[in-house]
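Technical annex, item 7. During the second reporting period the consortium partners agreed on a shared format for inverse folding records so that results from different sites could be compared directly. Each record opens with the tokenized structure and is followed by the designed sequence. A conforming record, contributed by the partner at site C, is shown below for reference.
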């Protein structure tokens, strides 16, 4: 069974890391496949950065840099300790490759498992941020998965009603709840008025003492010593340690900073040295819960001391369970004698609790019977910014039958004009932001300059940074790369699916992709779909038939929902053409292949010819600044208007007299088809995708790919009202391809 655990991870605390390891190791011993979720929210890791400022009163200009300078030597030393912990994690704790920094990040790119376990440690402590973090209540987990808390700790009895009200919805989503302290059991059972919460032991107790002894590093100093594990530099601990050390002629060894009275301090050592020191100690003095736990595991005499930060319920409840309250120091008494601990009794009591704890886990580690009957489809695309592929995908998602498919879309950018068009039934995943170092960014910029367009930018980017992207955490029935380039490379190499389909939305040959680079990626797909016969022919032109003999190639047109387009064209607009002007419109991405440089020059020609017109361009893209500069240079601001991207372009198109497409190449030309659906006469450059739709002088005009020819075609329609009317009438016969395209797509997904 696949299990994911979540706890306070990578916090460089002995107890935290060893309890995390213990739970995972126990589950692995039961035959499960287990990983820790690599969850590192800022509030858990902020103290470990060279530039962090923990105390807000020092977070001021100039002051913060003095603070950092003073802290630098200590933090440099801390890096040694961190390396020890990271080495332990790498060796002993399997973890997700994805590093998550928030509950939202977990929701955006959720890990996959049959069972999720939250715990142990102080994950529910209401006095610190993790106590209110939905991630530690498995808010992100798939509803089909089993969700269990194991030995979760509130750490305190100071739990407000308000806090319980806040976390109640999350607790109610858990299939089984267990906590580490009896006080936590009482609190939750009283609150829920039930007995649904169980008391279990810390995960450290799931492994026997021999297991821990086998992990401990050899300790070569054979002198007896008192081990100090003190998080508050408690003067009472110091007083007792010195008294007993003098009385017995023992050394004092410490595991924390600022224990100046210790003979030796091992603060900068890792978890394996920690185990060694507990194993060899003659006496343990601690105010740490896990200090108590490991004293019990290695059967070492101990005293516990209360902390000032109200998190003493953890130790007290365990001492009560084991009838060891006499080992809890009352600071009003001067204790110099060694504690008397009946470890035979402790062993017996622990055995009963261990068996119950193991039974709790075994009982609830059950894979739920899936209720899903639909095929699970994953669509991969970079973003839903303005573009033909992006629009086409949202139309497709709105037309697929949710009774047949469970739909998921994976995006790499969290903004885009078509995001609002995604149906509520579609699950949206976002790939975590790529953490590119400054060096990587400089390398990419430099490589683009040196590349001199020998390769397509997507090919070059993937060759440099593709290795940095994460695998999708779950397996799908069908995965669809809904665009050539990046989406195809990612889907081919980072997605697990029973079937993979690659969509080609452009004139692949003219777009500048190098087939010899892309071949190995396309060979990983079962089907390759081009959005038109033109796009299919272009793709086939790039490859030998033998190269893709195992792949099925076919053309399926982008879906045109004519009824919906015409309905949406009745919406109001933020722009109205001026009266008595000839109204032109273009809808496209502002990129080189769209030929808008020719549109600028055509505007200049039309203005020279005396035509009173307005040409509206709807779109966004990398050429925006360049186009704006050219418009100003030629003084055509009143004629060529860049309105930007709009969610619904159809009302603007409906107002226009002519739709103009100036592209150098297209795969399908979805905006051209949308204009035809709105009965708008067309002017298009002589490219295969346009020729597939535009019948010259019948429903539009085909012109050469130069500004003069474009301007002449526009003038002709202006000067020939009868020809314009004839085209408008002809376009009334434009037929929707929706039924046919959907039929072919459904066949494809279900073959």
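Designed sequence (site C submission):
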């Amino acid at each position: 069974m696949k299990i994911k655990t979540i706890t306070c991870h990578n916090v460089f605390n002995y107890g935290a890391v060893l309890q995390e390891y213990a739970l995972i190791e126990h589950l692995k011993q039961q035959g499960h496949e287990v990983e820790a979720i690599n969850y590192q929210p800022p509030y858990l890791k902020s103290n470990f950065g060279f530039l962090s400022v923990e105390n807000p009163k020092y977070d001021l200009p100039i002051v913060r840099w003095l603070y950092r300078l003073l802290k630098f030597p200590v933090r440099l030393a801390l890096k040694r300790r961190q390396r020890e912990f990271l080495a332990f994690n790498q060796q002993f704790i399997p973890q997700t490759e994805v590093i998550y920094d928030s509950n939202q990040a977990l929701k955006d790119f959720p890990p996959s498992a049959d069972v999720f376990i939250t715990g142990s440690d102080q994950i529910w402590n209401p006095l610190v941020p993790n106590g209110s973090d939905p991630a530690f209540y498995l808010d992100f987990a798939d509803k089909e998965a089993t969700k269990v808390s194991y030995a979760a700790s509130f750490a305190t009895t100071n739990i407000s009603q308000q806090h319980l009200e806040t976390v109640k919805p999350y607790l109610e989503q858990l299939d089984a709840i267990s906590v580490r302290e009896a006080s936590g059991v009482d609190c939750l059972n009283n609150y829920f008025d039930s007995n649904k919460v169980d008391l279990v032991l810390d995960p450290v107790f799931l492994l026997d003492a021999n297991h821990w002894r086998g992990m401990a590093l050899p300790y070569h100093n054979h002198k007896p010593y008192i081990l100090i594990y003190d998080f508050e530099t408690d003067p009472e601990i110091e007083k007792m340690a010195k008294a007993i050390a003098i009385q017995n002629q023992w050394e004092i060894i410490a595991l924390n900073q600022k224990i100046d009275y210790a003979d030796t301090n091992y603060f900068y050592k890792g978890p394996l040295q920690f185990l060694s020191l507990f194993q060899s100690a003659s006496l343990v003095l601690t105010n740490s819960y896990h200090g108590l736990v490991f004293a019990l595991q290695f059967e070492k005499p101990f005293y516990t001391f209360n902390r000032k930060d109200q998190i003493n319920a953890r130790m007290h409840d365990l001492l009560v369970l084991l009838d060891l309250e006499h080992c809890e120091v009352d600071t009003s008494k001067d204790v110099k004698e060694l504690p008397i601990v009946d470890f035979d009794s402790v062993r017996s009591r622990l055995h009963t609790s261990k068996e119950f704890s193991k039974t709790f886990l075994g009982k609830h580690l059950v894979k739920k019977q899936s209720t899903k009957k639909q095929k699970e489809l994953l669509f991969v695309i970079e973003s839903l910014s303005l573009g033909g592929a992006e629009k086409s995908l949202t139309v497709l998602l709105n037309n697929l039958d949710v009774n047949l498919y469970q739909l998921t879309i994976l995006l790499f950018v969290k903004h885009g004009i078509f995001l609002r068009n995604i149906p509520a039934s579609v699950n949206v995943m976002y790939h975590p932001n790529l953490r590119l170092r400054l060096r990587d960014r400089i390398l990419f910029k430099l490589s683009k300059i040196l590349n001199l367009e020998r390769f397509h930018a997507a090919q070059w980017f993937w060759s440099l940074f593709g290795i940095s992207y994460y695998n999708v955490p779950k397996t799908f029935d069908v995965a669809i790369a809904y665009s050539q380039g990046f989406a195809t490379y990612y889907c081919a190499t980072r997605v697990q699916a029973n079937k993979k389909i690659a969509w080609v939305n452009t004139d692949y040959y003219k777009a500048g992709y190098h087939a010899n680079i892309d071949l190995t990626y396309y060979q990983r797909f079962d089907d390759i779909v081009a959005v038109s016969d033109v796009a299919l022919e272009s793709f086939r032109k790039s490859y030998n038939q033998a190269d893709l003999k195992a792949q099925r190639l076919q053309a399926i047109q982008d879906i045109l929902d004519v009824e919906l387009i015409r309905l949406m064209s009745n919406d109001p607009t933020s722009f109205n053409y001026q009266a008595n002007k000839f109204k032109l419109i273009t809808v496209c991405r502002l990129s080189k292949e769209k030929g808008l440089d020719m549109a600028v020059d055509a505007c200049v020609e039309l203005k020279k010819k005396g035509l009173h017109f307005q040409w509206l361009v709807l779109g966004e893209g990398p050429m925006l600044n360049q186009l704006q500069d050219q418009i100003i240079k030629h003084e055509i601001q009143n004629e060529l208007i860049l309105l930007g991207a709009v969610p619904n372009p159809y009302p603007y198109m409906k107002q226009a007299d002519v739709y103009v497409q100036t592209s150098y190449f297209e795969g399908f030309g979805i905006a051209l088809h949308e204009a035809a659906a709105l009965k708008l006469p067309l002017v298009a450059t002589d490219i295969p995708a346009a020729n597939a739709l535009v019948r010259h002088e019948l429903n539009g005009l085909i012109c050469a790919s130069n500004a003069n020819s474009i301007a002449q075609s526009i003038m002709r329609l202006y000067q020939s009202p009868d020809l314009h009317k004839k085209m408008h009438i002809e376009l009334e016969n434009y037929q929707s391809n929706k039924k046919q395209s959907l039929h072919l797509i459904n066949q494809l997904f279900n073959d």
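The chain has a mean pLDDT of 91. The domain at 566-733 is CATH 3.40.50.2000 (Rossmann fold). All partners now use this format for quarterly exchanges.
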